[in-house]
Amino acid sequence: MEVRKPSDKDSRIPPDQISPSKTRKPLPSHFTNPEKKLKSKKLKFPASQTTTTVNPNMEEMKGSLSKPVAVIACIAMTLFYVATLYAPTLILRLPPPQSFNIFMTRRFICAAVSSVASVIICALLLPIRSGETSYLFGVYGIRSDHIWQAVFFPLFLTSLTYAGSLMLLASKWMEHRNQDRRPLLCCIKSTLLRFPSQMSSVASDVLFWRNLVVAPLTEELVFRACMIPLLLCGGFKAYDVIFLCPTFFSLAHLNHMAEIYSHHNYSLREASMIVGLQLGYTLVFGSYASFLFIRTGTLASPLFAHVFCNYMGLPVLFVQRKGLVSVAFVAGTLYFAWLLFPLTRPDLYNERTNSCRCWQGYCLWN
């Protein structure tokens, strides 16, 4: 159909005398601009059908830090964490500690200093756009929301791998109950009466503070809360970070080589076997802790799992003449593998996964 151009005669007709049939609507913009038509044809899906929602903050941070810079920063934080433990004697030239408690107190202070320094370095390297306190803490996974989920679900998952150990403890408790021959209520009462004295002795034990407080807190803060955001923002994939970050965590435990070597009559073979077993265990646990941090977006999840593992030690695989321990270990491992992904879904730990603040939305990975 040919469109007639308006003539001078048409322009002289008053607007009130023009009939509705003669009025012409303006042509749509996509007739005059075909490219705009292509841009306007965007498929719109309901919110329930979208697979992932990209956080704009994540897009700003992704790729803004190069991979070499992220790796070098992680290596520097690892070396600094280990070096500060020996700073009092090697750098500050302080006299040797007079007791084991003083020696450990010095190490506690050094670990705290290195952790704070790592947090500051990480904050300077990450392209953080907001200065809000909650926003900054959210980058490191330090959050107060969904705290019971962040504690209960990872602890339950971790306890499944220790099903054999828990079965062994239960069997020993039953044997003790059979030998005691006292009513159950009397045993519970005596346990409650001894609880305050036991807690006071535990609180004064420096090894308790090292294994269950200082070491888990500082290590998770440095090797998870600081390193994982750096590696993710450097362009590494989530699965790559899960296996790369524990490497730095394992290498940080090589400082125990000299102590183990001296405690085992300077036997290099025994020391190497012990250190190799320790490195393998820290590598496996470091991968699991990194997985928890990335999936949940909270620091509490790997922190409480770390405390539980330090308290339990190595899992018990089998015990002679106690087959139930091996059965419990195998069953617990199978249940752990079955529930690992369902119990670490990001939506369990975040109100809205499309706007969560954990590393600017990196918990959206599937």
| Integer tally of domains | 1
Task: Determine Rg (CA atoms, Å).
Answer: 31 Å
pLDDT < 50 runs, ≥5 residues: 19-25, 34-63, 355-360, 362-366
Strand content: under 5%
Distance between the termini: 53 Å
Task: Give, in order, the helices and strands.
Answer: HHHHHHHHHHHHHHHHH
Number of strands: 0
Biggest sheet layout: none
Textual characterization of the structure:
This protein has one domain (55-180, 207-364). Helices cover 65% and strands 0% of the residues. It is built from 17 helices and no strands. Helix 9 (147-161) packs parallel to helix 16. Residues 1-37 are annotated as: Disordered. This is intramembrane prenyl-peptidase Rce1.
In short:
By secondary structure, the protein is mainly alpha-helical.
Write the layout of secondary structure elements.
Layout: H1 8-11, H2 29-32, H3 34-40, H4 56-61, H5 67-85, H6 87-90, H7 100-125, H8 133-139, H9 147-161, H10 163-180, H11 184-203, H12 206-233, H13 238-251, H14 257-263, H15 268-296, H16 300-312, H17 323-339
Main features:
366 residues; mainly alpha; 65% helix; 0% strand; disordered C terminus
